[in-house]
């Protein structure tokens, strides 16, 4: 007899989601976490000063609020509340103007001048069918025949070209810059395949569900998942660094929210040498350099729209963003960098003392880079918010080595679980019909290294757990397949 039915290693959003899916099926589930607290990439901590609550990694969740993995879970009963800014996103330009992404695709198009019609054609067909599109795209490519093949084909014709090619269809510099800013989340040059798809997916997600933040910080997501899991009888043990499955109780299934190389180590002799070699050869992506600030006042943005948006992309024109990402691809420091920034206190004053604010920004940099981007990042912010440094009271800096130390899944500061471009965006970490399964029928991988990849949405854990239910327990999972 096994000690429990299933064991999950890791309490990131994918690990916790996998545990909930298993527990909802009536299984006895135990979760183990190396850190003293839960959350992985979805945590909130006082990184700068007491009372200033920052998200050490992910903080804005365009794929989270509408995640199919969490759609049937009563996470609101466990404290999860999504907050939206007046606009999902603003992208300021050097001349003081800004491209504003509204919840409505039509309203956004009105800001784009000569590109209005083309933008509506690019994203319009997919906004109302976001659930159908996500059902096919946010899963392994070979796991089943698409349920919406015509919709998928239409998306592919528009989005599969690289972002550099996609942008050529637009005339206005602001539209081109907006698309480049979306694509920058992939942290690869804009000539890479899949960058166009990243750009369109983020744009559609903004119109379909917004770019929200959880009240209180990303920790609220992890806490809600953990609370729900425990209400179902699941257990969580923290401060337990697992180096081998032999250290754990016996179980019928083990699901690991870890990097591919960590899976190869932890599962060890249970896996064939050839498969472990493939895991260790999975391609890593670029890294992030992140700064969190405690502010005495709101960010003094030149453009008023930026003061109402939780997310602000800073990078200037398409050409500037492309140059920054090319530098990362060539293992050079980008200067100026492209920045993904968020100011959650625009909608959530609980994140800082009364009248104070928090801001974070991360810039793509070469993996493992050990330099200091703080001054470069703050100079970039000053271009669009003169006087920014005057309102800074404290900062916490995390380059790739620090990010890797915080979370062992972030190898060399790669926060995406692996390179997200070309075939690496589809077949991750190895080419397989079901990449969550391993040659050992009891062992599964459920981290962001599997499809659909990075982001706080739980879909990697969701798919892995449902596969384990079918294969190991003969259980038909609840909800869609």
Task: Describe the overall structure.
This protein is an alpha/beta fold. The protein folds into 2 domains: 210 residues, 3-Layer(bba) Sandwich (FAD/NAD(P)-binding domain), CATH 3.50.50.60; 252 residues, Polyamine Oxidase, Chain A, domain 2 (Alpha-Beta Complex), CATH 3.90.660. Helix content is 32%, strand content 15%. The chain contains 15 helices and 14 strands. Strands 5-4-10-11-12-9-13 form a 7-stranded mixed beta sheet, with helices on both faces. Strands 7-2-1-8-14 form a 5-stranded parallel beta sheet, sandwiched between helices. The protein has a two-stranded antiparallel sheet with strand order 3-6. Strand 1, helix 1 and strand 2 form a beta-alpha-beta unit. Helix 7 runs parallel beside helix 12. The radius of gyration is 21 Å and the shape is globular. The two termini are 29 Å apart.
Write the layout of secondary structure elements.
Layout: E1 4-9, H1 13-24, E2 29-32, E3 82-83, E4 87-92, E5 98-101, H2 105-110, H3 116-127, H4 130-137, H5 149-159, H6 163-167, H7 173-183, H8 195-209, E6 213-214, H9 219-231, E7 235-237, E8 251-256, H10 260-267, H11 273-280, E9 287-295, E10 309-314, H12 318-329, E11 339-342, E12 357-365, H13 374-384, E13 392-398, H14 400-406, E14 443-445, H15 459-473
Parallel strand pairs: 1-2, 1-8, 2-7, 4-10, 8-14
Antiparallel strand pairs: 3-6, 4-5, 9-12, 9-13, 10-11, 11-12
Question: What name does the CATH topology of the largest domain carry?
Answer: Polyamine Oxidase, Chain A, domain 2
Structural class: alpha/beta
Mean pLDDT: 94
Helices, by number, come to: 15
Radius of gyration: 21 Å
How many β-strand stretches?
A: 14
What is the H/E order?
A: EHEEEEHHHHHHHEHEEHHEEHEEHEHEH
Q: Based on CA inertia axes, which overall geometry fits?
A: globular
Span between termini: 29 Å
Number of domains: 2
Question: Main sheet, how many strands, which sense, barrel?
Answer: 7 strands, mixed
